[in-house]
Automatic annotation (TrEMBL):
The keyword Membrane applies. It comes from Anditalea andensis. It holds the Pfam family Alpha-L-AF_C. Homohexamer; trimer of dimers. Residues 293-495 form the Alpha-L-arabinofuranosidase C-terminal domain. Gene3D superfamilies: Glycosidases, Golgi alpha-mannosidase II. It catalyses: Hydrolysis of terminal non-reducing alpha-L-arabinofuranoside residues in alpha-L-arabinosides. One of its GO terms (biological process) is L-arabinose metabolic process. InterPro entries: Alpha-L-AF_C, ASD1_cat, GH, Glyco_hydro_b. It comes from the Bacteria. GO terms for molecular function: alpha-L-arabinofuranosidase activity. This is non-reducing end alpha-L-arabinofuranosidase.
Length: 501
């Protein structure tokens, strides 16, 4: 019997927010220096931006780009990175143990963001930084003229304000590894006051609180979320969550199911938000939304030297990783009512879809599902019925030293769908390692008609990687003809398929 996917346009979840196709530029390894920015390199433009890298970045249609960290931000003085280059100090960068020249800072990032066509999303330092430093940064970037820091920006050659709307109040403040780590209560107090000053400076900004990132033994991530939501529910617009997974035990079927844990965490946090809003009788304000503002696969370059210096976190990805990314994105779509921001971590070289050396670059496997979603999957998310064979994972490690999971009834087909204009966009990961799955796609009402665009990300086997001059995993364009209330399609083994019907 064929598997079945039923599409019902009346069963809606929420509007897909394009900000779920975000990314992240941290001052870490060769993400900025030697990644997006490489002055003097013949491949760079006159401002030092790598032209080949920028072209690849544009293909990701990045909606919202987080900057400048990450762990880096928790000891970052933003004033070091503005003004004449020759006056900018070199600092010891403690998060990733490198020297930070500060050659690239706020204004360089904003110039790059324009070239990318992305909205900026800044994180302030709530580790070693003060609430007044955070406020001054908003004044520098967003106030047109008048006060000292707005005038300073103008002196630096930027007459118009940058108008940065999205600001996160610190990074991973629940993690003991964070410089200036705080308890949930202390963090909430500091974030509340920082947010207050920042909003007094520019009331149009949106604030993101640091939710859970610490899933190491002994941590209580949901308790952290509960306190932060309770304390900041009338101040912030989003709660940031982070998640990295890894195939540490080389257990393919468990690994490709791991995005379901992100979905469980999403539902848990949604419950906490609903409960806090209900108790506070805050039905009159917009709900707090979830920002998955760091997610990816990260386990290979995650110990010892791989964590520091020039070449930190230079993870190389394979096909199974690309399937995990497609399923993360499916999970965001399926939770479109609450997930309104997501940022893949990160953009270039550092756990990234784009990998560059001095003389060229290539697209990693994970680039392809990301680019497909960000260029095609918009509109209203649909609650899709899926009937496919299932499996149990058994107990498995989710990532490096973090929590374990044990998932039951994982469908081989991982599906999301949206309705946009007069098109239905269906996104299907076939997790099966060896078998194509023949599937009836059934329209509950109306009919399919015509020739549909089909895109498939696949490769010779689940461990296939890309490299310089070697493309094993990529997007293939196919087509499909259909008429009537049912189309039948065979999803190849270990593939991601996007159908526009
Ligand atoms: O993305 C790499 C790091 O992962 C970020 O700096 C930090 O926020 C997280 O721990």
């Amino acid at each position: 019997q064929n598997a079945r996917i039923k599409i019902d346009l009346d069963r809606t979840i929420g509007e897909v927010d394009e900000k779920i196709y975000g990314n992240f530029v941290e001052h870490l390894g060769r993400n900025v220096y030697g990644g997006i920015y490489d002055p003097g390199n013949p491949l760079s433009d006159e401002k030092g931006f790598r032209k080949d890298v920028l072209e690849a970045v544009k293909g990701l249609n990045v909606s919202l780009t987080r900057y400048p960290g990450g762990n880096f931000v928790s000891n970052y003085q933003w004033l070091d990175g503005v003004g004449p280059r020759e006056d900018r100090p070199t600092r010891l960068e403690l998060a990733w143990n490198r020297l930070e020249s500060n050659e690239f800072g706020t204004n360089e990032f904003m110039e790059y963001a324009k070239l990318m066509g992305t909205q900026p999303y800044f994180a302030v330092n709530l580790g070693t930084g003060t609430i007044e430093e955070a406020r001054r940064w908003v004044e520098y970037t967003n106030v047109a003229s008048g006060p000292k820091y707005a005038e300073l920006r103008k002196e630096h050659g930027y007459t118009e304000p940058h108008n940065i709307i999205y600001w996160s109040l610190g990074n991973e403040m629940d993690g003991p590894w964070q410089m200036g780590h705080l308890s949930a209560e202390d963090y909430s107090k500091k974030a509340r006051e920082a947010g207050k000053l920042m909003k007094l400076t520019d009331p149009s900004i949106k604030l993101v609180a640091a939710g859970s990132s610490n899933f190491y033994p002994g941590a209580d991530p949901m308790q952290w979320n509960k306190v932060v939501i309770d304390e900041l529910k009338d101040v912030v617009d989003y709660l940031a969550l982070h998640m990295y997974v890894g195939n540490v035990d080389d257990d393919y079927y468990s690994f490709v199911a791991s995005p379901l844990v992100l979905e469980q965490r999403t539902r848990l946090v949604k419950g906490l938000i609903d409960e806090a809003m209900h108790r506070a009788e805050r039905a009159d304000r917009d709900p707090i939304y979830i920002a998955w503002d760091e997610y990816n696969i990260w386990y290979r370059w995650r110990t010892g030297d791989a964590m520091t210096g020039e070449r930190a976190l230079e993870e190389r990805y394979n096909l199974e990783d690309a399937l995990v990314i497609a399923s993360f994105l499916n999970a965001f779509i399926r939770n479109s009512d609450v997930v309104k921001i997501a940022n893949m971590a990160q953009l270039v070289n550092v756990i990234a879809p784009i990998f560059a050396e001095e003389d060229g670059m290539f697209l990693q496997t994970i680039y392809h599902p990301m680019a497909l979603f960000a260029n095609h999957v918009f509109g209203t998310a649909l609650d899709v019925y899926v009937d496919s064979e299932k499996y149990d994972t058994g107990d498995f490690a989710l990532g490096m030293g973090e929590q374990r999971a044990d998932l039951k009834d994982v469908p081989y087909l991982d599906v999301s769908a949206t309705y946009h204009g007069d098109e239905v966009i269906i996104n299907v990961v076939n997790r099966h390692k060896d078998k194509a799955i023949t599937t009836d796609i059934i329209a509950q009402e109306g009919a399919f008609t015509g020739e549909f665009e089909v895109y498939e990300v696949n490769g010779p086997d689940i461990k296939a990687e890309n490299d310089f001059g070697k493309t094993n995993v990529e997007t293939m364009k196919k087509s499909l003809k259909g008429k009537g209330d049912k189309i039948t399609y065979s999803f190849p083994a270990h593939s991601f398929t996007l159908i526009k019907a």
